[in-house]
Amino acid sequence: MRVGIIGAGPSGLAQLRAFEAAQRAGVDIPEIICFEKQSNWGGMWNYTWRTGLDKYGEPVHGSMYRYLWSNGPKECLEFSDYSFDEHFGRPISSYPPREVLFDYIQGRIEKSNAREFIRFNTVARWVDFDEATQTFTVVLDDVANNKTYTETFDYLVVATGHFSVPNMPYFKGIETYEGTVRHAHDFRGAEPYVGRDLLIIGGSYSAEDIGVQCHKHGAKSVTISYRTAPMGFDWPEGMEEKPLVTHFEGHTAYFSDGTQRRFDDVIMCTGYQHNFPFLPHEFRLENKNCLYPDNLYKGVVFNEQPRLLFLGMQDQYYTFNMFDAQAWFARDVMMGKITLPNKAERDRDIATWLAKQQAIENVFDEVDFQTEYTRELVDSTDYPDFDLEKVGEMFKSWQRDKREDILRYRDKTYTSVMTGTKAAKHHTPWLEELDDSMARYLGQEKKQAS
Ligand code: FAD
Ligand code: NA7
């Protein structure tokens, strides 16, 4: 049996890890090849300074930026088979910067021979499914060597992420707006906005985090324009929310409440598109960012063609440990340890989850939904069990911390459900910490400890 995995971000790496865990337990595993279009693993966490196209002319995948600190407690994303304690050897704070989390992701996978399974600089271009042989043929571009070739698989795992291809709406007059316009996908740090009046469009995580970062690093003002509802945090002086922009003229944005204001720059924090240009249309997920994409049995198995599996396609409270639970489930489906019910039963199961999603009323319901979803996957596999319900409570507490103080919630500490370790207090309050390097993050702590 041959398994193809597209993408070596946290989800694709979780899939490799799941097979490795089975192998370590003495089970024969299939032949596996993972294709990654970047030159290294880590997906979003593999920071790139590039925007637009990469050095081979491929669309840049990365949307992460300098000074990005975890936007939820690390205790909520901890792998249940590789703790932060095991990796760092001592307690660290609850909200580490990107480089530290990247190091943690790498730490687990570097303990295996996973790199041997990955072909880097390799883009999946197209997938065909042959009904007669029940196999996928994947057309691949080795962009570093300018070679195109194909590989054939019995199962295909799509782990290409969904926070990479910008959703870029049009606003009347924006084509002649006199300031700069970019999408959050191309934001790489707050420096260009120091001393400037910034308009952010969007009302979710990117708007909040980029807005707060620009405020922290010295933007003159940050205005956030929402479509549906304001985020409603207790914003500091210099930050405010306004309803949606109706149009632009010159340097000025006009809002639907009749007010107007001049801005130097605009950043569209308007989310991302699920984008699968390498899949024929009948295999594409067509949903927007949501907690339960339609057509995916257990959020993983493509219902119309169960040899096709997707990881990490949900909107995410849970991340790394949920990807693991999905990958363990996917592995067991592929290896026949989990028998899929027939299509009618799968349809019913999907409908039940979609109805639950429909009934969600607030952010706490969202957390409960994803806790219950992840619980079901963990229970149906041998992924090491952990106190998911306590993690769910931590997510709710995190939401309350943000309501209390959007500039200081990252100074809070949480306790690991994996090890019982209470996070260390970071040496510098987040608002005053302008250096996000791992050296500073860990080095300073060492100094403090001694
Ligand atoms: P990705 O990380 O996107 O990885 C997908 C991989 O697939 C990439 O390496 C890409 O190069 C590869 N790929 C794509 N197309 C192809 C192709 N055709 N052929 C070959 N390879 C391909 N999560 C948190 O837990 N905490 C945070 O603080 C946090 N902050 C975030 C901030 C930003 C700005 C963004 C965008 C996301 C953030 N996330 C955060 C969520 C983040 O998406 C997940 O943590 C995680 O990276 C998702 O993993 P993934 O493997 O599913 O997707
Ligand atoms: P999200 O969470 O998908 O949010 C997208 C936001 O963009 C959301 O508030 C939308 O408003 C808004 N949006 C979308 N289209 C428009 C238009 N046309 N006009 C105005 N506003 C619009 O994406 P994020 O980038 O914030 O977060 C993605 C990930 O990155 C997340 O996991 C983080 O960890 C980092 P709506 O509320 O639907 O009206």
Question: How is this structure best described in words?
Answer:
The protein is an alpha/beta fold and 450 residues long. It folds into two domains: 2-164 and 272-398, FAD/NAD(P)-binding domain; 174-268, 3-Layer(bba) Sandwich (FAD/NAD(P)-binding domain), CATH 3.50.50.60. Helix content is 27%, strand content 19%. It is built from nine helices and 20 strands. It has helices at 10-24, 84-88, 98-110, 205-216, 320-334, 343-358, 363-379, 388-404, 438-449, and strands at 2-6, 31-35, 118-119, 122-130, 135-142, 147-153, 155-158, 165-166, 180-183, 197-201, 221-226, 239-243, 245-249, 252-255, 260-262, 265-268, 272-273, 296-297, 301-302, 308-310. The strands form six sheets. Strands 3-2-1-7-20 form a five-stranded parallel β-sheet, with helices on one face. Strands 9-16-10-11-12 form a five-stranded parallel β-sheet, with helices on one face. Strands 4-5-6 form a three-stranded antiparallel β-sheet, with no helix packed on it. Helix 1 (10-24) packs across helix 5 (320-334) and helix 7 runs antiparallel to helix 8 (388-404). The longest helix has 17 residues, at 363-379. The radius of gyration is 22 Å and the shape is globular. The model is unreliable at 446-450 (pLDDT under 50). Flavin-adenine dinucleotide binds at residues 6-12, 35-38, 43-45, 61, 63-64, 70-72, 77, 123-124, 159-161, 163-164, 278, 312, 316, 319.
